[in-house]
Amino acid sequence: MHTATAERIIRPARNIFGSLRLPGDKSISHRYGMLAAFAEGTSRFTNFSTGADCASTLACMQALGATVRKLDNGTVEVTGVGGSVTPSNQPLDCGNSGSTMRMISGLLAPQQGSFTLVGDASLSRRPMERIRKPLEAMGARLTLTDGHAPIHIAGGPLQPIDYTTPVPSAQVKTCVLLAGLQTAGETTVRESVRTRDHSELALRAFSARLTRTVNSVSITGPQALHAIDAAVPGDISSAAFFLCAAALFPGSSLILDSLGLNPTRATLLDVLTALGAHISVLNLEDKNSELVGTVQVSSPPEGLRSTTVSGALAAQLIDELPVLAAIAPYTSGGIRIRDAKELRVKESDRIALVARNLRAMGAEVEEFEDGLDVPGGQTLHGATIDSGGDHRIAMAFSVAALRAEGDTLIQGADSAAISFPEFFDLLDLVAER
User: Fold this and answer.
1) Banded pLDDT at 3 (limits 50, 70, 90)
2) Nearest to 386 by CA among 417, 336, 363, 352
3) 323 phi, psi to nearest 5 deg
4) Which of 67, 220, 267, 320 is the most exposed place for a label (fewest CB within 10 A)?
5) Residue 307 and residue 271: Cα distance in Å, rounded?
6) Could you tell me which residues are beta bridge partners of residue 142?
């Protein structure tokens, strides 16, 4: 179990007000870091994610022969291996990062040599069978431990594949595309629900050619990647906590600058709008095929309404569901979440933890195998929150605590550093008390 020790007291707020620029998007940073390390030449990134997960990706790529330099001005410089990694005689430590482990497996399967991927206790419980199936269908040799890490890869040439993902997953799609990038012929990934497309956009930015249809993406290998210079947009999954916090307070006003607004990730803005929040997007620009803009959010005087999140919407919002559930008691009609069974196999069982912590704060909540019903119009009180060492639970309940009566103690608050080390400082900056 992740032994999260640090505790944090969250005091109630009167309002949310101000403007923030958020750290770089984690999903994009992972991919830029990995592709830059694999490409020819030296890439430079500003606003690269400060989270521990992306540091795990960079450390793994360094162990495989890439050079990573962090400059004084915060720029990250990555000199790539030009398509050919050097096998490490040490296991590659992916830390807590499922993204690192699943995506790097696809990158390494076609390479010469043998590789071992390990992770912390939480990552070692997460399902890895989903990448083994497509990679083995390409001819890769992977050994898992009861369907989990450690993963042993005996690298070598692969055959192209036409693969339909059983569970839509951007990480599995990326894993197969990175293997396909190095494999002679055309590799295609099909999915029933379109998942986030950062990998396709990043591969194109690094000069790879891909073909996309509504529900498939194909890559013809082998192709070489070339270094880029890029500013990483602010992370919208991190923004979710601030957007939801602002939505809780009638009369709030929050501006988030240079935020990544990729349509496969910006679904939360639609859900908050459906709840009645006022959201406007200013200065929309295209940067390396990613949409970036400034978002202004305020809450209506009468407060938030109710909504249901299910089907394809639940898959797109999987990371934002804990914070939506955490603010649901303060809406007038509540929030219903279904088709989100995937939440049970994240860093923790997020459905169970959300239900337990809402009840600790005095909320009524009904738990289902694939979701939650959280009625609206409830008054919550401060409580001791068990984050389960899960960064998104720690942050979601910090937001719920802002409208509660009395102080809330978040146990394992240090887990937020996995994705968002600056979270509590930025929350203090915009919470008026």
Assistant:
1) very low
2) 352
3) -75, -35
4) 67
5) 8
6) 153
What percent of the chain is modeled with pLDDT above 70? Answer: 99
Q: pLDDT tens-digit profile of 307-316?
A: 999 998 898 8
What's the CA gap between 162 and 218, in Å, rounded? 9
In sequence order, the 6+-apart residues with CB closer than 8 A to the CB of 391 are 347, 415, 416, 417, 418, 419, 420
Alpha-carbon distance of 120 to 9, in angstroms, equals 27
CATH superfamily of 7-24+234-432: Enolpyruvate transferase domain (3.65.10.10)
Mean pLDDT value of segment 237-241: 94
Q: Do domains 7-24+234-432 and 26-230 have the same CATH topology?
A: yes
Indicate which residue of 319, 386, 390, 414 is catalytic.
Answer: 319
Distance between CA atoms of 426 and 254, rounded to whole angstroms? 12
What pLDDT is recorded for position 5? 60
Question: What is the domain partition of the chain in residue ranges?
Answer: 7-24+234-432, 26-230
**What pLDDT is recorded for position 318?**
86
Per residue in 77-122, pLDDT (tens digit) is: 999 999 999 999 899 999 999 999 999 999 999 999 999 999 999 8
Q: Is 339 in the active site?
A: no
- Written out in words, the top-level CATH class of the domain with range 26-230 is alpha beta
CB burial string 116-126: b at 16+ within 10 A, e below? bbbbbebbbeb
Ramachandran assignment for 41, one of left (phi > 0), alpha (psi -120 to 50 degrees), beta (any other): left
This prediction's pTM:
0.87
